[in-house]
Design goal:
With 270 residues, the chain is α/β, with parallel strands linked by helices. The protein folds into two domains: 151 residues, Rossmann fold, CATH 3.40.50; 88 residues, no CATH class. It contains seven helices and seven strands. It is globular.
Length: 270
């Protein structure tokens, strides 16, 4: 989304918030703790927003945000020995406060931007002036919308700077080679493929396995190569005899269309 509105000068960063949204991914805590430690080293306090946007969207000025329920302070003590731990230190959720916006003109609509305004007010209530957003392509889009929404705030309103960190096991980001979480996911799937391969050889059978990956074949191909699969087909390979179609509804326009899917019968007959 693009517009020509110029951003006003921003003051020095005094407090940072880190937010993780979308599906889990390996190395989440390594990214969170390293980012937080980088700011703490310069004396800048860091707020960890709990469970993505899910609690911020319900912010009410008269109630405020409660430490331990809505956020935690990511200080040196809390970050101790978290870099190599599993899970997500600040949790995650799939709440998307920008879901009503799919055109730049919508950023001028108070109703469509109501959730973004709530997020802004919630973060400003904590005196946050910079946000690190960690997530996949949906979260990236939300971060972009949140940043551009602020162009239309009243003159003199403080701005919250936004930096997004790509996170997805699908590795489907354009412009960078790899996203964190991808290699661990591919390696884990490769182990399962090798297990299935051993069972298949022992029982003279074939197994058809499906991976995640959305519209990109990175995860399927990475796992198949490392796991020595007999055959791999990614979304890019679904055409011709391997393509089929099913009715679907566009989530934005609500218009019906035919979605391309894999023709499993054709794959099995190969």
């Amino acid at each position: 989304m693009q517009d020509s509105t110029a951003s006003p000068p921003v003051p020095p960063c005094r407090k940072v918030a880190i937010l993780f949204a979308g599906g889990p991914a390996p190395a989440a805590n390594a990214v969170i703790s390293t980012a937080a430690a980088s700011f703490l080293k310069h004396g800048i306090p860091v707020v960890g927003i709990l469970h993505g946007y899910s609690r911020l969207v319900n912010y009410k000025p008269e109630e405020g945000l409660v430490e331990g329920r809505h956020y935690i302070m990511l200080d040196q003590q809390r970050l101790k020995r978290t870099r190599n731990t599993q899970g997500i230190l600040i949790g995650t959720a799939r709440t998307n406060p920008g879901s009503e916006i799919w055109h730049p003109a919508h950023l001028r609509d108070p109703e469509r931007t109501a959730k973004l305004r709530t997020i802004y007010e919630a973060l400003r209530s904590l005196e946050v002036d910079a946000l690190i957003s960690i997530g996949g392509d949906d979260t990236l889009t939300t971060a972009n919308k949140f940043q551009r929404f602020q162009h239309y705030l009243p003159e003199g309103s403080p701005r919250i700077r936004v930096v997004h960190v790509p996170k997805t096991i699908d590795n489907d980001y354009e412009g960078i080679d790899f996203t964190f979480g991808y290699f661990t996911a591919a390696d884990t799937l490769a182990t399962e493929i090798r297990n299935l391969l051993a069972d298949a050889e022992a029982s003279s059978m074939y197994f058809l396995a499906e991976t995640m990956g959305r519209r990109a074949g990175w995860l399927a191909y990475g796992a198949a190569i490392a796991g020595e699969a007999s055959l791999v087909l990614g979304p890019e390979d679904v055409y011709g005899q391997y393509a089929d179609f099913e009715p679907a509804i566009d989530p934005i326009t609500q218009q019906p269309y035919e979605r391309r899917i894999m023709n499993v019968d054709a794959v099995v007959r190969r």
